[in-house]
Amino acid sequence: DAGVIQSPRHEVTEMGQEVTLRCKPISGHNSLFWYRQTMMRGLELLIYFNNNVPIDDSGMPEDRFSAKMPNASFSTLKIQPSEPRDSAVYFCASTRDGYGYTFGSGTRLTVV
Amino acid sequence: DQQVKQNSPSLSVQEGRISILNCDYTNSMFDYFLWYKKYPAEGPTFLISISSIKDKNEDGRFTVFLNKSAKHLSLHIVPSQPGDSAVYFCAGTNNAGNMLTFGGGTRLMVKP
């Protein structure tokens, strides 16, 4: 099993640009989570999907952030427009019915 | 409002000694707690968990203790090894694994 796959591993972009982060969950997992890690706030949940449906997006910081899960094997997290304070490591994780919680390796985003 | 707090951002321990990482929570609905370990440039990986009906769970060198009345849990690593140097996150959940709420993490450094 390849695990949870995130791309890109690193992203450097200029303020105001659109950024799209991608995640492929583990095959057979039915829940997908997007987290953000910062020094100040640790690991914070942004949004999670169950069976491709967004269940809780209360952690999404602003309207600039959006997430989609068009099918069971793919999800995106988009930031438009990006700002320097969005710089962080973004993790995707997946589970099957709450078990086997597995994280991807993360995308380190730097907005300059 | 941080529901899970790890008040020590870092901890330094000598190899062979015990490492004790602490975690406090405020959400009395949490019924399951987990510890994750994170190396640089990798996603967090599951380490050990405990159900709220227990007060101790042991797995090799790792033991987690839960004090429900104090809303406090701790992770003991004994003996500590240099390879244990990582960031440790504790997390709580109220439905056996979905939607984990993480603390801010503690960086453990085990010196040879």
Question: What are the salient characteristics of this protein?
Answer:
heterodimer, A: about 110 residues, mainly beta, four-stranded antiparallel sheet, globular, B: about 110 residues, six-stranded mixed sheet, five-stranded antiparallel sheet, about 0% helix
Q: What does this molecule look like?
A:
- Chain A has strands at residues 5-7, 10-13, 19-24, 31-38, 42-50, 53-56, 65-71, 74-79, 88-96, 99-103, 107-111.
- Chain A has 112 residues and is mainly β.
- In chain A, a hairpin with a 2-residue loop joins β7 (65-71) and β8.
- The N and C termini of chain A lie far apart (36 Å).
- Chain B has strands at residues 4-5, 10-14, 19-25, 32-38, 45-51, 56-59, 62-67, 72-77, 86-93, 101-102, 106-111.
- In chain B, 36% of the residues are buried.
- Chains A and B meet through β4, β5, β9 and β10 of A and β10 of B.
